[in-house]
Structures are given as C-alpha cells and as structure tokens.
Amino acid sequence: MPYKKLRIEVANRVAYILLDAGSRFNKLSVTTIRELKRAFAQIEADESAHAVVLSGYPGESFAAGADIGQMVNFSSGDAFHFAELGQSLFDQIESCSKPVICALNGITMGGGCDLAMSCDIRIASEGMRIGHSGAKLGIITGFCGTHKLPHIVGKNFAREIFMTSEPYSSADALRMGLVDRVYATDDFWPEVLQLAERIASHPLHALSAAKRLINAAEDIDLRSGCLLERETATHINSLSC
Amino acid sequence: MPDRLGTICTTPNGVAILTLTGKHTVSSRDLLEYLYRQIAIMAGAEEIKGILVTGSESGFCLCSTEGAASPQKASHLSDFGQKTMFSLEKIGKPTIAVIEGECSGVGLEIALSCDFIVASQPARFGFPGIAIGQIPFCGGSQRLARLVGKSKTKELIYSGDLIDAEEAYRIALINRLYPAGEAVVKAEKLIEHICSRSANAIRIGGEVVNAGYDIDLQTACMLERDAFALCFSSFDQREGMQAFLDKRTPHFKGE
C-alpha cells in the first residue's frame, strides 16, 4: 500500500522517513501516525538499513502538531484512543532496534515535539522553532511529552515550555538540551547525512544493545542497570572477537 | 507579625506578588509558618491567577541559621518545612521565583519549590549551612539534585559556596537571566502571558509532570493519557481549538 503522508528512501545503510503531507505544514493526523507506524515496521524488517533518519526535509515543517480540525470535536473517549495511538507509535520508535535520528528541519510543535523526543538523537536546522502549544489550546499533550520533556530538559524548563505555549528558537533548544546539535541551514542536511552514515557504518548488534541499555537506564536503578550492562556486554562484546 | 516577614500585592491582572522581606533575625520556623499561611490564602483566592515569589536586593527571604535545640525540634521543623514546600508546589497556579539578591538556605528551598526561577544580578544561590553543620531540610537536596544533577548538587552543598546568576543560568538552576533591576517587571509580563493560557490545562499539565517524574515511562504515560482525555470534557479545550481554527484569541474560563 503506498504512503500518502510520507516517503521512504534507503541509501548507504540509512533509511530516511520523510514526512510530506503535501500541504505547507505536516500534521500528526490519525492517518500520518498510522503511516509512521507502518513505515517503522517496514524499516525494522529491512536488513539493508542500520539507522533511521526521521525528518520533514526539505519542507517548511518537521511536524506542526496534531490536526486541530480533527481534534476540536473529540470526545474524551476519542482523545483516549488518540493518545493510545500516538503513544504506541512512540513506543515503537523507542523499541526500534535501529538508532533513530530526528532531523528537525523546521517547525516542530506539540505532538511533533513529542515525536522528536521519542527519537534517539535530535539535530536541528538553525531556523527550527520548537514548543508545546497545549495550554493555548486548552489541553495537555497526550503523547508522553509530560514525562519525556522534564527528563530531557529538566522539570523547570519543561514547565516553562508547557506554560508559555510559545515556540522556542534552535539556540534556546540547544541550551536547554532539547536538541543535541544545531547547524546553519545550508550545512544542516549534509551534516545529518554524514552523522547518519557514520552511525550506520557500525555493527548493528552493538548499536541495538547500546540503545536498549541507555533506554533502560531511564527507568531502573543503577545496580540493576549495571547488572543488565554486564550481561549484555558479555554477550555482545564476544561477538566481535 | 505578617508585615514583618512579607507582603502580598495583587495586580489588576490577577498576579499576586509575594515579597518576602526576611532578615537574619527571623527564625526559619516563623518564616515557614508565615509562608504556609500565605500559600493557603493565595490558593483560595479566586482573583489570583499566577504568583511571583520575590525578595529584595538585600536578600530573598533571609532567616537566621541558628541550629535546632534538639533532634526532635529539628525533625519537627523539617516536617513542617517539607509540608510547606509541597503545599507551594501543589498550589494549582503558576508560580515563578524572582531572585535579585541572595537566595540561600530556606530561600533556595522556596525558590526550588516554584515552577521555575528567573533572576538578575546580583542574585546568588547556595546552601551555606554546611559551615555550621547544617544540610537542607525542606526537600532542597532532592529538588536541587533533580534539577541540576547530582554532581552540581554535591558541589553546592559540600562547599557551601554561593554561585552568581551567570553560573546559575549556565547550570540551568534558573530559566532566565534578566538585566539588573528588570527581573520583577519582566517576570510579571511573563506570568501574565502564562495566565492568558488555559489555567485548567496548565494545572493538569503541572500535576502530571510532577506525578510522572519519579515513575517509569509506561506508567507515567498512562497517567498522561487519562489526563489528556479529561481535557476533552472541558470548556477550555473547545474554546482553545475553535479559536485556533478561527484564528482569534481564545477566551478561557479555566474550566
């Protein structure tokens, strides 16, 4: 079945999922989320890909939040199911065995911000704007943002971002730790490609193990984490001998 | 008594400015009791939409650093201090600590219990109590570690050194660093802006952030999903989204 809201390209062991809704801003509508789930399942199964880049390049936005026209008449029950759908996508990205790099080419709001936070590394173009406009819409996010944002930027910046509902610049995002790198507009895409290809050149089993361990570190105590690391390293590091 | 320790003035836009004017002669018990009463008043006052907690250039709620007379008294004081900070954290309205002078000891504990901190020079931050054998007792060791990390927290508590506003900004103890003398005016604008958003969404969001922070991702996301669904039975959700679609300013009721 063809995709309507995105394209997939694979080159040099990197799979690119490029959001392209055909309108000015990409929105995380029910259709887009379902297509993203399908795309990640397809790439998970593609042995030629060792890393994933998720982006809205070369468009104006990465993802400008949910589709408000679709949501305005949601009942609480609709909202519940919508949150579950979004959360299942983000869970799929976190448990994807391949590193996922999020290349934030432009506007990244609301659910788009949550989508970016479910990826492993975030790289932004200088002109990117990022934020969470829930409080301006009378809602909170339902896509794991209330847990992820405070753990990425700290509780205080998270509360400020939620409370102001304003977009923040790439420089602000870098300072808060919400993005890991910022590049000038012209350097952005070549840098994304270079990093993705370098990561993809490494053995996939080691990348996957590192991803699993680092994700587990968020939720478990240090002692159990170290036990897990020992067991994983014993297995993984012997494969390269 | 109250006027010795602080004042509250409420602007026509519903911003309460709680100015703590402590002195080194005030006991921390008196300061905490005063704060506890003001929190209860501000929580119940419908006209108050957002809160700035501030001090003066000479210091942000200074109080004496005398030790407690017995372990039992120290324990009671810690109990009461922690209860006060939890009540500030759960006040249900946006709170910003605005620091323009020394913010140390109990002062820093109070600032850490606000939603976030903004400051301007000559603000300074720290827990100097270690020099006389004291450690934070209102939850400060836990809140600071969650905010700036374990290493910075140990450095600050072990050394007892005060850091300046630049350093506090660099380590993300404060969210914004304003030019000297402008912190209160700028913070007032910021909180007014925040108060123009849905109070309902802000309250629920803040509570979910606090409740979810110390638990695992999956459980926290379930909590968030349910709170998200709850927003869709509110007036503010219909109004906020309709206003967005109509490209006009929303008129929230906070319900």
Structure overview:
The complex is a heterodimer of chains A (241) and B (255). With 241 residues, chain A is of the alpha/beta class. Chain A has 2 domains: 6-199, 2-enoyl-CoA Hydratase, Chain A, domain 1 (Alpha-Beta Complex), CATH 3.90.226; 203-239, Orthogonal Bundle (Lyase 2-enoyl-coa Hydratase, Chain  A, domain 2). Chain A is 53% helix and 17% strand. In chain A, the strands form 2 sheets. A 6-stranded mixed sheet of chain A has the order 1-2-3-5-7-10, with helices on both faces. In chain A, helix 4 (111-117) packs across helix 6, helix 6 (145-153) packs across helix 7 (155-164) and helix 10 runs antiparallel to helix 11 (222-239). The mean pLDDT of chain A is 95. Chain B is α/β, with parallel strands linked by helices. Chain B has 2 domains: 2-195, 2-enoyl-CoA Hydratase, Chain A, domain 1 (Alpha-Beta Complex), CATH 3.90.226.10; 199-246, Orthogonal Bundle (Lyase 2-enoyl-coa Hydratase, Chain  A, domain 2), CATH 1.10.12. Helix content of chain B is 50%, strand content 15%. Chain B contains 11 helices and 9 strands. Chain B has helices at 2-5, 28-44, 71-89, 106-112, 140-148, 150-159, 165-170, 183-195, 199-213, 217-231, 235-246; strands at residues 6-10, 15-20, 50-54, 95-99, 102-104, 116-120, 124-126, 163-164, 176-178. In chain B, strand 2, helix 2 and strand 3 form a beta-alpha-beta unit. In chain B, helix 5 (140-148) crosses helix 6 (150-159) and helix 9 packs antiparallel against helix 10 (217-231). The longest helix of chain B has 19 residues, at 71-89. The radius of gyration of chain B is 19 Å and the shape is globular. Chains A and B meet through helix 2, helix 3, helix 5, helix 6 and helix 7 of A and helix 5, helix 8, helix 9, helix 10 and helix 11 of B.
